[in-house]
Amino acid sequence: MDLSANLQLLRARIKDACNRAGRAEDTVTLLAVSKGQPPEVVKAGSDAGLLLFGENKIQEAKAKIPLCPGRLRWHMIGHLQSNKCRDAVGLFEMIQSIDSVSLAAEVNKWAEKAAKTMQVLLEVNIAGESSKFGLSPDALLDALPDVNRFPRIEIHGLMTIAPWSREPETARSIFRRLGELKVRCEDRLSAPLPHLSMGMSGDFEVAIEEGATIIRLGTSLFGPRPKTARVGDGP
Q1: What is the CATH number of the domain that holds 134?
Q2: Is 230 domain-assigned?
């Protein structure tokens, strides 16, 4: 794996996608998905210039983050269980996977105890896939005022995972709908939402063309995940 070469190539592709969309390159943030990667790989990413990393599981993040450079920033991007909210509030600067009012309430509770304001994204299951978490578009609009009332939570935008496909173009309608939903949410809140987290290794260029501000890249950056035991793995 040549992480620096991968990163250079990805940044060139990000720049090209931004140019096609008439956007400035600095409007897109690359989040490195470090799920399954050991701390030494995260450090290599940090040495190459990456600052923002995303983890999917609390157990792995809890074991890994203390072993990584302290200057890094971390987002929770996987499904969050209510009984893990205390750890999530302590470990991450943003939780991208709020998918219910009850989960938001639990995050707010622990953020209050930590005297911390928690940045969150609301996860939306645009395609209605039964295998994925997330609010339906209608449920999102219904939940929005309730989540916005929690004093220790700041809603910064929306997140989605498009259905897997070999053809990136199939994700375009999903990303476009998320952008449209963000506008509706902004109207309801009478406030801007700065972030659309959408697009992964297979479809990030389409996501950028449709307004993504955070793209979540793992395998295209680090290569295949190791199959051996990882930091934080249980028995």
Answers
A1: 3.20.20.10
A2: no
Residues near 212 by beta carbon (within 8 Å), at least 6 away in sequence: 28, 175, 196, 197, 198, 199, 204
At residue 120, what is the residue type? Answer: V
Does a structural domain hold residue 229? Answer: no
Residue 223, phi-psi category: left (phi > 0), alpha (psi -120 to 50), beta (remainder): left
Read off the pLDDT of residues 31-71 as tens digits, 9 standing for 90 and up: 999 999 999 999 999 999 999 999 999 999 999 999 999 99
* 233 domain-assigned: no
What are the start-end ranges of the H helices in 101-171? 101-113, 137-148
Instruction: Domain count for the chain, please give it.
Output: 1
Is 234 a domain residue?
no
What whole-number distance in Å separates Cα of residue 8 and Cα of residue 117?
34
Q: How many helices (H) and strands (E) does the chain have?
A: 9, 8
Q: Which residues pair with 159 in a beta bridge?
A: 123, 197
Phi-psi region of 88 (alpha: psi -120 to 50; beta: other; left: phi over 0): alpha
- Could you read off the pLDDT of 2-29 as tens digits, one per residue? 999 999 999 999 999 999 999 999 999 9
* Residue 11: domain span: 3-222
Q: What angle do CA 32, 59, 30 make, to 5 degrees?
A: 10
